[in-house]
Amino acid sequence: MNTEFTENLKDRYPLIIIGAGPAGLTASIYASRYKLEHLVIGEAIGGLAFEAHKICNFPIENEISGRDITKKMQEHARSLGANIIMDKVIGVQEKNEGENKIFKITTQSNKVFLANTVLLALGTERRRLDLPGENRFIGKGISYCATCDAMFYQNKTVAVVGGSNSANTSSLYLAEIAKKVYQIYRRDKLRGETSWIEQILHNQKIKVIYNTNIIGLKGEEKLEKIVLDTPYQGMKELAIDGLFVEIGSVPQKALIKDLSLQTDENGYIKVTSDQRTNRLGIWAAGDITTNSNNFRQIITACSEGAIAAESIFKFIKQHTS
Amino acid sequence: MSKVIELTKQDFDKEVLKSDIPVLVDFWAPWCQPCIMMSPILDVLSEELSGKLKICRVNTELPENRILAYQYQIQSIPNMKLFKNGIIIKEFIGLRPKEIFKEELEQVLNSS
Questions:
Q1: Would you list the DSSP string of A286-313?
Q2: Which residue in A42, A214, A236, A270 has its CB near the most CB atoms, within 10 A?
Q3: Contacts of residue B91 in chain A, CB cutoff 8 Å?
Q4: Is B45 part of the contact surface with chain A (CB cutoff 8 Å)?
């Protein structure tokens, strides 16, 4: 496994990008083209996009995996000289330095960096079911990553909960491996791209159960049954080997709260059209912001990263000339 | 210096089941983002807990290792099992921060 990230790191950068998904990596590419020295700190290189099994709407590729597309982005950013480190930022503090502000960034591995500007490309994390017993069954039948765990369900019966693109692509991927896939969705129609929905409806292995919620989890050593709020074929319990939770994602919260950034009612950072937050010196881009019209695609994250990098470049130029 | 050891089915017995010291086995795959995030944490822990704990990895993508994943009932990765005298004494599933994981490991190692 290649995890060696040996960089010649400095203590201080004009820009530090927190997050290494499509938004952060694109911002890095643009920043490098502007010769804007920067550091990317990402807990997950590639972000949540890494886990996408199949991407068919990114303009340069007919079909590509999340792993490959984010690998290309990372290679592109690195080829332009980007410093990218895998670490978790646990604190961003604003300090005064004469008349200027400076941000002190602390990571989980006790590294400290200073930055004149910060771009938050934090992304989102997966929403959980919040059902009793959920934690007990993690890794014992419950999974939040079909790409990671599908291979362990060869010829088994699984369920996917959710009805948007990530749930739909997970069902299709699991249908390639498992014996039977139940897709359980609370609404009466699947959402997301019509192409995926058509494939699901024509797939003999997938059975979509509409207007239904999962209200309970049962099993001894591992998950054995899920309890439905609406009977399916007369039964309120469905025997399965695995349950894949794909009910959307929620914004990362910790840093946003610490910095008192303005968010919408769901916790997404409010930004201007050039990706500025309400705090001077802090920008935000990608799935964490309100700027994609709730669409949150790889291409919208890339776009926001590019816009943010250009805006930061102009800001730094203005303040140093 | 104690590096993480890449295991195969062939050396599992020798390196894990017959080890003189406890062994943490990380079942992972290259398509798994949390596994990749866990990897540098295990590299550091392997150094820091050197002498007290041996850390190994099993790449479940390799066909020759699938039998190990089946045998140890892996359903979700990263899945890290702590062996002592050939017996699993603790299981850790999913990504966890380094310091928290180190504490968890030390607690088990000190009490077992």
A1: STTBSTTTT---HHHHHHHHHHHHHHHH
A2: A42
A3: 139
A4: no
